[in-house]
Amino acid sequence: MPIKFSDRSVRDFRGLYQWPTYTGVLEGVPNAEMNKSLIDGILGKAKELTHSEHIFLIEPRLEPMENQGSFSSGEFEKLPGIVCVANLLEQAIKDQYMFSSLTLVWFQDEYAMPIGKEIEKQIEELDWTKIAKDFDL
Question: Which residues contact 81 (CB under 8 A, 6 or more apart)?
Fold first, then answer.
């Protein structure tokens, strides 16, 4: 199944990695600080999984949460339940290279495939030639 960007469709998945967003979180209620730290860690894990320094994050939708009992202050918000990391490969953007690639990170409520409709729309607005990186073997 191709992923459609604004300027082309990408058919070559080198890998699709997925896991529950809050895996490994032992305590606390999601808030802006926790989510930022979590996203930073996920981007680092995406680099490790795909052996790529070229990562693009689709900004996640945050869902406000009500005060969680004994927590007396603060704003609580949670990320969608599943992290998705796709390692994509396509023909080069510039003729002097062999390929172009991109590691795309997003969050959605269910495991992919399919990619969530909201995320598909966001990807369709992205220009592959501006966010992917050319390389040679």
Answer: 20, 21, 22, 107, 108, 109, 110
89 DSSP β-pair partners: 12, 101
Question: Residue 70 carries which DSSP code?
Answer: T
Alpha carbon 121 to chain centroid, angstroms? 14
Its pTM surpasses 0.85: yes
For the chain, which residues make up each domain, given as ranges? 3-65+74-135
pLDDT tens profile 95-122: 898 988 999 999 999 998 888 899 999 9
Cis peptide preceding 114, ω within 30 of 0: yes
Give dist(CA 5, CA 9) in Å, integer.
Answer: 6
CA angle 99, 100, 105 (to 5 degrees): 140
Higher pLDDT, 92 or 40: 40
